[in-house]
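INFO  loader      accepted 1 record
INFO  loader      residues=317
INFO  predictor   begin
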Amino acid sequence: MMLEQKKRLEQLNTWFEIALDNMARGLSMFDADRRLMVCNKLYREIYDLPPELSQPGTPLDDIARYHVMRQKGCDCEAEFQRLSKWMDGHIAELAHGKSFSYVQDLPNGRHILVTIQPLPDGGWVDLQEDITEKMRAEQKITWLARHDTLTQIANRFHFREVLQQEITNLQPDETFALLWIDLDKFKPVNDTFGHPAGDELLKSVAQRLRHAVRTSDIVGRLGGDEFAVLERNSPTKEDAEHLARRLLHAIRKPHDIGGKIVHVEASIGIALAPQDGRTVDTLLSNADVALYHAKSQGGRRIAFFRPSQRGDIEFTH
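INFO  predictor   done
INFO  writer      dumping tokens
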């Protein structure tokens, strides 16, 4: 009878290990003395644990030191103490029956959602779920919602979003410039070379705009052949004009589109904040008015909006 019970227990243990190692999540259990009781294959694979650190009775501190070694490339005592303090805080919460979750970023670029739940005897169970692909998909969706898929720069929605943030955070002694850019005679490019060539030209223009501005500035595509630049860090009127001239120079340089040389010019309307507007719609409207008058004078020009009269535009040749 005892032999049968022993065989039955061994069979149950075998089934338990098979079930444990075929879980879709990593799993580990620790006792009240912070020693590993059991872990599955996926847990070992996620953290690349050597056999000696995945055995029952392994102290949590030994596993933590191994993590620090892998992340820092050395046995960094300060980092280990920081991690130990963090673990002490959460283990104290577990003692009060609280569970918690957090995302762990691994050195190999994977993102692991760790869920820790207390056990009645003072220990706890860890569940690890690899959410790397899920996070990448969410980031891609977020990126697509805010960027123009053709030119890879901010779309109209995101540009307005950033513009609103800039207005909200604007201090009394700060300014910024909004430059609205429209390509001159873009339609003939489409008519002569075809829409694919027109798309390549828009991509080329967007790339040049990005290279012509500072990293703190924002470039966006408002739609069609219209672009915009948000010049930050309190530019003067002269600064905005200098940037506009640099943008026009970058745009008018010949574009190699599939082996064909294409020339294009642009016009730019400029509104300065806060004097030309304190809302997104007002600033965009005033920059658009300035752009309209720049184009009405034959294009290839820079026009500043003057707040004293919407139709009174100052032109820079």
